[in-house]
Amino acid sequence: MIKVTVYNEFVHEKKDEAVKAIYPNGIHRAIADFLESDDITVRTVTLDDPECGLTDDVLRDTDVLIWWGHLAHNLVPDEVAARVRDHVLMGMGLIVLHSGHHSKPFKLLMGTTCNVNWREDGDMERLWVCDPSHPICRGIGRYIELEHEEMYAEPFGIPEPEHLLFIGWYEGGEVFRSGATYRRGNGKIFYFQPGHESFPTYYNSDVQTVIRNAVHWAAPDLRVNELVCPHVKKIGS
Ligand code: ZN
């Protein structure tokens, strides 16, 4: 059983009627609804929870953390972001969705600006599969087509990915590294661009397949309980 925690800041869905109409119970519940299955159990937390719901106990009990945030990155306390980073380094998986590219934990783990060029006019997007052999791309054809998405374009201020899995192309002509993997310490990280709150992206079955695949991929191979730099004796002494 893989234990997933979905963090959603849960701001747009409470104050914007159009967003509420798409995600009446919040983006976190929409994601939980398609992930919950025989081998995945899901907990959801939001910005309003004490410590964003991301206490040390919760993170220790999380195999893969999924992060959706947009307006309220700055309201996530620095110590919560550092705690998430440390749990990734110890082995927890992290899936960062859409505007989570600017979240504190992702920027801490990348060490770069994570800035993008962007435009919010509902361009059609095709996400082209770059590596059909990768487990995250399993079950996807040559591309995923989304009728409307927020446009994110290069240059994307990320470090060179370990694997580039998707290139997003928009009808305006721009392209974006829309699916990229990293390893930091023992932890596996997947950034996946689709998921603007004004469009029903998380009901798209291909998007759901990618996120489900990513949960299985990001589940820890090795997890340690602390980050230490131990002094060791020479073998035989
Ligand atoms: Zn957006």
Structure, briefly:
The chain is α/β, with parallel strands linked by helices and 237 residues long.
Report on this model:
- 24% of the residues lie in helices and 30% in strands.
- With 237 residues, the chain is of the alpha/beta class.
- The longest helix has 14 residues, at 205-218.
- The model has no long low-confidence stretch (mean pLDDT 98).
- Bound molecules: zinc ion (ZN).
- Zinc ion is lined by residues 70, 98-99, 150, 196.
- Zinc ion (ZN) binds at residues 70, 98-99, 150, 196.
Quaternary structure:
single chain
Percent of residues in beta strands: 25-35%
What ions, cofactors and ligands are bound?
Answer: zinc ion
Q: Mean pLDDT score, rounded?
A: 98
Order of helices and strands: EHHHEHEHEHEEEEEH
Main β-sheet description: 9 strands, mixed
How large is the count of helical segments?
A: 7
**Low-pLDDT stretches:** none
Report the helical percentage.
Answer: 10-25%
Termini separation comes to: 42 Å
Radius of gyration (CA) equals 18 Å
Count of distinct strands: 9
Strand order of the largest sheet: 2-1-3-4-9-8-7-5-6
What is the 3D form? globular
The structural class is alpha/beta
